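Appendix B, Record 12. Input sequence as logged:
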Amino acid sequence: MADDPVFLITGASSGIGAATARHAADVGYRLVLAARSTDRLAALAEELGGEERAIAVTCDVSDFGQQEATVQAALEAFGRLDVAFANAGFGAARGFLEETPEHWRDMVLTNVLGCAFTIRATLPALKDARGHLLLMSSVAGRRALQGSLYGATKHAVTAMAESVRQELNDTGVRVTSIEPGMVDTPFFDNAPSNALEPDDIARAVMYAVGQPPRVDVNEILIRPVSQPT
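Logged structural output:
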C-alpha cells in the first residue's frame, strides 16, 4: 500500500542486513536497500516485491554524497522514511601489527564515519516521521578485546547511539543500538557451531522497531548461548 512505512538498511546485500529486510517486508514495510554490492542487492529487491515494495541503491557509506542520494531515492520512491538501520560495516584481524594500514582506514571510515553519515543523512526524514534509528554495534562495543581496532570502532558506535538519543529527546525519534556476539555471516571465515544466525539478529531488530511509540529500546545485547566473552 502507498502509505506503508519505509525501512532503509545499509549493508543490505547479505547477512544481517538481508535477513532484516526479509523480516521487515514480512510485516509490511517497504524497503530501501543500500550496499556497495549491487548485483545481490537488485536480486533481493526483486525478491521482496520489486520497485513498488523495495528499491536497491548503490551506496558506499563512507561517501556522504551517496548517503544523501540514498535518502533522496527513498523519498522520491516512497515519500517517507520511518526506520533507518545503519548496518554496514566490516572487521579486521586482531593485533596491531596485523592487516594493512589501508584496511584499517577503510574499516574506520565505514564503521565509524559511515555510521555518523547515515545518522546525518536520515535524521531530517526520521524527525518528520517520528521514526526509529538503529545502529549496528557489537559485543565488541561493550568491552575491550585484545588487539582489536574493530572493537574500538564499535565502542564509537555505542557512544554515538547514546549521543544521538540524547540529541533526539522530545523529537519522537527512537534510537536503538544492536550489539550482537558471534553471528554466522561472511564476517567470520569459520564461525563456531553455536554462532547466532542472521535471522536471530533480525528478530531482535524487529522487536525494537515493533514496540509502541512510547517505548524506546535503547540497547539489545545478544550473544549465543555459552559465548564466553
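The domain at 6-222 is CATH 3.40.50.720 (Rossmann fold).
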